[in-house]
Amino acid sequence: MKSENLDQKIGILGGLGPLACVEFQKILFDQFKKKYQPKSDQDYPEVIAIHATKTPDRPAYILDQTKPDPTPYLQKALSDLESLGCNLIVIPCNTAHYFLDRLVTKPETVIVNIIQKAALVCKEKGYKAPLLLATSGTISSRIYERFFQEQDINLTIPSSSDIDDTMDLIYNGRYGIKAGNINDANQNRLAGIAARYDKADCVILGCTELPLVSKKITYPTIDPMVAAADFLIDCVKKF
To answer: Is position 207 annotated as part of the catalytic site?
Structure first.
């Protein structure tokens, strides 16, 4: 895509979870400001975000398909964004990408795949042994393997106990990230999980909550939200 040929309205299908969506918007505008040096509000791209917070849990459904299906909720939010004129849409939730093939879009709509963009960044940077930290649903669905194998990159998958620890870090109702605990304890906990894999050359932050507590990881990290934001700002028209 050439930015000079596009004047896109960006749609963000968020709320999965809400803090990750807010963080993505900050990344998007910060990256746009860095690249284009806008001088006024009107110089920024038009962005509409829907927080589809009532969407059922994605990992729960992937692991047990008798659970509520997130697909109708994602489809409604996607269609709502399209009805508001958004034709360039991003979903800042890794696990939700499991459902992309089930979603129906208008012919002119482009859904930016944050996992695919992360794989391209990993390839560009020359990483050969990335560690994937993600939800159990994302890992069991193998959606990351699909896009990283296209780039001839073999992922390191954590042990089952470390996957459980990562899930607890994200979902625990008392001290998890989704409960709003963006603190040193969770920074240390995530860094401790990553440190067990000394053969990794980078860490893929494969859940959009994880970048919120990733500052103490000693390896290079790849944030799919940053990869997607970089792609988006190359797609919108420079004012």
So the answer is: yes
* Number of structural domains the chain divides into: 2
Q: What is the pLDDT of residue 235?
A: 87
Confidence of residue 8 (pLDDT cuts 50, 70, 90): confident
Q: How far apart are CA 120 and CA 209, in angstroms?
A: 21
Q: Are residues 231 and 180 in the same domain?
A: no
**69/141 same-domain check:** no
For residues 62 and 93, state if they share a domain. Answer: yes
Whether 78 and 142 share a structural domain: no
Which pTM value belongs to this model? 0.92
For residue 101, is pLDDT > 60? yes
Cβ atoms of residues 12 and 90 within 8 Å: yes
Instruction: Please state the rounded mean pLDDT for residues 48-77.
Output: 97
Give mean pLDDT, residues 134-153: 96
Could you tell me how far CA 209 lies from the centroid of its own chain?
9
DSSP codes of every residue in 65-130? TTSPPSHHHHHHHHHHHHHTT--EEE---SGGGGGGGG----TT-EEE-HHHHHHHHHHHHT-SSE
Tell me: pLDDT of 26 over 80. yes
User: Per the residue annotation, which of 21, 86, 93, 122 is the catalytic one?
Assistant: 93
139 and 103 co-located in one domain: no
Among the listed residues 86, 202, 207, 235, the single catalytic one is: 207
pLDDT digits (tens, 9 = 90+) for 162-216: 999 999 999 999 999 999 999 999 999 999 999 999 999 999 999 999 999 999 9
Q: Which two tokens stand for residue 35?
A: 């690249």
- Active-site residue 235, yes or no? no
Enclosing domain of residue 126: 115-223
